[in-house]
Amino acid sequence: LGTQEGARSGGLVSRLFGRGDSAPRRVLDDEMLESLEELLIASDMGVDTALRVTANMAAGRMGQKLSVEEIKRLLAEEVTRVMEPVARPLPIFQKTPQVVLVVGVNGSGKTTTIGKLASQFRAAGKSVVIAAGDTFRAAAVEQLEVWGQRAGVPVLKAAQGSDPASLAFDAMVKAEEEGADLLMIDTAGRLQNRQDLMEELSKIVRVIRKKDPTAPHNTLLVLDATTGQNALSQVETFRKLADVSGLVMTKLDGTAKGGVLVALADKFGLPIHAIGVGEQIDDLAPFDPEDFARALTG
Ligand code: GDP
């Protein structure tokens, strides 16, 4: 598996004070606090969260001389504290098929994430079915089929432009017939027409509940780390469109450090089930709060 730290270098504090132990110790004063606040805010952490993290870090330490390594460690501890409650793998239900609806804007990494999850569940001995619910984008369906092949998982599709809800219903039937453990349903991500999308998503939910009143058991929102603050408004929007139960953040292998995840954790408290750390099938890692905090602040 990829890790966040491996692919990245140079977190926030290094950018401010340089790396390593050769840097001189510094007095924790108002000026330093302000620099740290600015740094965290610039990382998309959000003003309130940034102020709280720095205040907690400084509590009882004002006037002390700290090494750069100590500053990194203290900040990372505070960020870890915020992130620990939301770090939770996708829960496995006893009830089968477990139905997971996957939502998010186009390009966020939905298809890729579904493929990676399918592969992980397959490796764990689960049988998986995927439904290509974005019936309007032919390319999306094709991509999903490629991922299905890679993961060794069947992908159900329908004619282009046909009703995603009826595909979802057929997929429920098929998943039940096959005794599948997990059914993942991809959905459209056209935010340009929210009303349409809302109707489409709520119809999918209505229809799958005819087969299983407890479904969907999870609604995963996939977010792209490179969109920074945008992730906040995407969560707000998708929570209005669907009953989002957890998040996956993709593209944390690039330069994006995902500071916005801290703001998200603080504001919404939604579980972070996994993170995308590359384009390959194994590039989906559990969300590790400590790794994440160290990579962000380091
Ligand atoms: P969708 O439109 O939401 O289904 O998005 P896709 O799954 O097609 O992904 C869009 C692009 O992002 C593709 O080029 C993927 O290879 C890429 N991508 C997805 N997840 C990751 C990730 O974790 N890291 C990187 N570097 N690229 C990713």
TrEMBL record:
Signal recognition particle SRP54 helical bundle domain segment(s): 1-83
Q: What are the TM regions of this chain, as residue ranges?
A: none
Annotated GTP binding lies at 104-111, 186-190, 250-253
Membrane topology for this entry? Peripheral membrane protein
Assign the protein's first listed, main location to one coarse class: membrane
**Gene Ontology BP terms:** SRP-dependent cotranslational protein targeting to membrane
Catalytic EC class: hydrolase
Q: Recorded E.C. number(s)?
A: 3.6.5.4
Highest rank taxon of the organism: Bacteria
Q: Quick check: keyword Membrane in the entry? A: yes
- Cellular localisation: Cell inner membrane; Cell membrane; Cytoplasm
Q: Which residues form the AAA+ ATPase domain?
A: 96-243
Residues annotated as domain SRP54-type proteins GTP-binding:
97-298
Catalytic activity, reaction form: GTP + H2O = GDP + phosphate + H(+)
Q: Which UniProt keywords apply?
A: Cell membrane, Cytoplasm, GTP-binding, Hydrolase, Membrane, Nucleotide-binding, Receptor
Q: Which GO terms fall under molecular function for this chain's record?
A: GTP binding; GTPase activity; signal recognition particle binding
Any one annotated GO CC term: plasma membrane
Question: What family classification does the UniProt entry report for this protein?
Answer: Belongs to the GTP-binding SRP family. FtsY subfamily.
Job of this protein: Involved in targeting and insertion of nascent membrane proteins into the cytoplasmic membrane. Acts as a receptor for the complex formed by the signal recognition particle (SRP) and the ribosome-nascent chain (RNC). Interaction with SRP-RNC leads to the transfer of the RNC complex to the Sec translocase for insertion into the membrane, the hydrolysis of GTP by both Ffh and FtsY, and the dissociation of the SRP-FtsY complex into the individual components.
Complexes and interactors? Part of the signal recognition particle protein translocation system, which is composed of SRP and FtsY. SRP is a ribonucleoprotein composed of Ffh and a 4.5S RNA molecule.
Designated name of the protein: Signal recognition particle receptor FtsY
This chain's source organism reads: Pseudooceanicola antarcticus
Covered part of the full sequence, start to end and full length, is: 83 to 380 of 383
